[in-house]
Amino acid sequence: MRTTLIACFVGLLTAFPLSAQPLADTLITWRGYARTAEARVHLYPGPPDEETRTRTILVRELAANRGPSTLSDVRYLAEHVGRQFGIDPAQATWVFHWGAFSFDGATPGSDKEVFLRATFRRTSTNRLSTPYWKVIDRNTVRELTDRRFR
Would you state the pLDDT for residue 131? Predict the structure, then answer.
């Protein structure tokens, strides 16, 4: 009986909490021209039906960031994050997210937020191209993260 209960408990732990988590959640810092910048980065698997973009990387602009914005250094940031996680930035979908956490003095829990999807390609010289941008909504972000984004 005890072995069965433990097996059920372990099964529940592995079935629910892990499936709803990003693969990584970390604070990334980089040096801008004048100051050190920081952003919160979440790494998710891509949607199961996506063949060319196997990861979704969500980058949150933080109010505490005193350096350049994530958009100002987007190509550098993508290469930096890609190196850290061993991912080619051109093979990932990037989502840049602003919410109450992005502004000093903002009301916590505010439902105002903006998501920008960015995709890159490699140029003939193997550099990252300027990103292709698209405004998306929360439901699209959930789809891009295989329903793990909360």
Answer: 95
